[in-house]
Amino acid sequence: MSDAKIIDGKAIAADVRAGVAKDVARLKAEHGFVPGLAVVLVGEDPASKVYVKNKAAQTVETGMLSFEHKLPAETAEADLLALVDKLNKDPAVNGILVQLPLPKHINSEKVLNAIDPDKDVDGFHPVNVGRLWIGARSLVPCTPTGSLILAKTVQENLSGLDAVVVGRSNIVGKPMASLLLAQSCTVTVCHSRTKDLPGVVRRADLVVAAVGIPEFVKGDWIKPGAIVIDVGINRVPKGDGKTKLVGDCDYESCAKVAGAITPVPGGVGPMTIACLLKNTVEAALIQKGLPALS
Length: 294
Ligand code: GUN
Description:
It is a single chain. By secondary structure, the chain is of the alpha/beta class. It has two domains: 31-119, Rossmann fold, CATH 3.40.50.10860; 141-270, NAD(P)-binding Rossmann-like Domain (Rossmann fold, 3-Layer(aba) Sandwich). The protein is built from ten helices and eleven strands. The strands form three sheets. A six-stranded parallel β-sheet has the order 1-11-8-7-5-6, with helices on both faces. The chain has a three-stranded parallel β-sheet with strand order 3-2-4, sandwiched between helices. A two-stranded antiparallel sheet has the order 9-10. A hairpin with a 5-residue loop joins strand 9 and strand 10. Helix 1 (9-31) runs parallel beside helix 10 and helix 6 crosses helix 7 (173-182). The longest helix is centred in the first third of the chain and has 23 residues, at 9-31. The radius of gyration is 19 Å and the shape is globular. The two termini are 38 Å apart. 44% of the residues are buried. It binds guanine. Residues 97-100, 122, 142 line the site of guanine.
């Protein structure tokens, strides 16, 4: 069925975690400290609870300290801001992640902006967004970082490639565009108002699909041999009363044309937490005034 090389995100994420575990061991041996990650969950969103549990487990598996803060859904914004302030000041906490979405009565932007930029392992703080775009050392959002690592397993040098990013979110599309520009790609960012979207995507040597619409990108939009990175995770009905996960690309038709493609699940998904762990190490290094590792 599929001619494309299938990019094994699960295996590559395991490699990234192994690298993080090595870095953590080295920091402990050479500098006498162990990085710590605090994750804050407000409310009972079932998907968020699963993510937070996985984040904590993988943090501990790589040898780091995990601090979990679970707050009731009715927590006042001022109380959440007070917790963020406490974590900002806690020297054992090198990374802070406030799980989204937050309850509606809380202003998410205000909370995210209260996180110390050097502890902002999500890379969502405007200071980190700015640092990323000017090419300064910064904490970079995890999903685009993971997507770039996957693309580079297919082709290490992306310089000069035509890259098309479908989607312009602050979490994926925009930082992805910045990372690809830094790799010397010629970058086009597409969105719902783009004229002749299939025609634009067809020019791409590298496609990153991050629109949040199930199976949106079709095989006949893909240039033969292109690298396709599918960031989407959409739960859709399977027809038998059950559901399944699909990406933002129509996998079957895209895999027939692409040179390499990420599956859903098992592509970008597992990379996100692995990159969060990487960011926690990097945050600790930034705070200690140490250079980046590898
Ligand atoms: N909820 C879903 N994805 C994410 C993420 O990457 N970061 C945070 N903070 N919350 C999320």
